[in-house]
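[Discussion] Sanity-checking designs against the backbone

I'm trying to build intuition for which residues belong where. Below is a structure token string of 246 positions. I'd appreciate it if someone posts a full sequence so I can compare it with mine line by line.
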């Protein structure tokens, strides 16, 4: 996926994210698995959007789910294929234009839809998710609300590092519905030297309270909450849970 500033999650950032940022998927997994228990009981198919390096995918497959895992980043997909070997499929899919396969559940963590270029694209993606649900199906995704940016206005740059990688992130809020992350990643080369790459990630923020009304016309009942289960998510990161009647 790209936003006019080059593709998101190129090789180095994808690897650093896999090594150092798995805590979000790990925190969300128990709540998502609980939501998906009826899907597992009937052997339904789970479609994962923005699977990244496969951190949540591995939890889903490990619980016994049939999973099609998708992402727009080739580098992330390479990592996912090495991290998860028994998903039904791991494939490239770019929202909102690529068609979604019919599924009994659609899941996504990491505010994947917030990376789309605008509110209209997010609306199109949400509509596509709703239409992909089979009768009795559900979706569970996280998405950045307008409050996500307001709560981070003026925040200082943040850094995180491992033995062979480091990330520095500076953020800005140029408009109430636009949240920008300037990310610098450093990776150690085999000879001990370091290389650098820079990515700009533009996130679109929406009024998530409007989503239930949007998808009611698609026959999907949506609730907006602050977590998938018992986990505590960052302020302004909303969880949308949608259900289609049997």
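Best answer:
Here's mine. Compare freely.
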């Amino acid at each position: 996926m790209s936003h006019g500033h080059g593709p998101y999650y190129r090789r180095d950032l994808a690897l650093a994210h896999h090594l150092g940022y798995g805590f979000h998927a790990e925190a969300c997994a128990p709540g998502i698995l609980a939501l998906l228990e009826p899907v597992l009981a009937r052997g339904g198919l789970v479609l994962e959007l923005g699977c990244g390096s496969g951190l949540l995918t591995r939890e889903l497959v490990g619980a016994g789910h049939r999973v099609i895992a998708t992402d727009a980043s080739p580098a992330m997909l390479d990592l996912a294929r090495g991290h998860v070997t028994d998903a039904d499929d791991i494939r490239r899919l770019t929202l909102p234009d690529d068609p979604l396969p019919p599924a009994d559940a659609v899941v996504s963590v990491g505010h994947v839809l917030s990376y789309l270029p605008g509110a209209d694209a997010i609306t199109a993606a949400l509509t596509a998710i709703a239409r992909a649900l089979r009768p009795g199906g559900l979706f569970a995704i996280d998405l950045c609300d307008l409050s996500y940016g307001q709560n981070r206005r003026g925040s200082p740059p943040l850094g995180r590092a491992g033995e062979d990688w480091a990330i520095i992130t500076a953020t800005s809020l140029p408009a109430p519905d636009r949240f920008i992350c300037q990310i610098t990643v450093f990776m150690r080369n085999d000879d001990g030297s370091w290389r650098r790459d820079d990515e700009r990630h533009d996130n679109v923020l929406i009024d998530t309270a409007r989503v239930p009304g949007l998808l009611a016309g698609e026959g999907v009942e949506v609730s907006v909450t602050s977590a998938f289960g018992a986990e505590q998510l960052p302020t302004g990161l909303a969880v949308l849970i949608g259900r289609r009647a049997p």
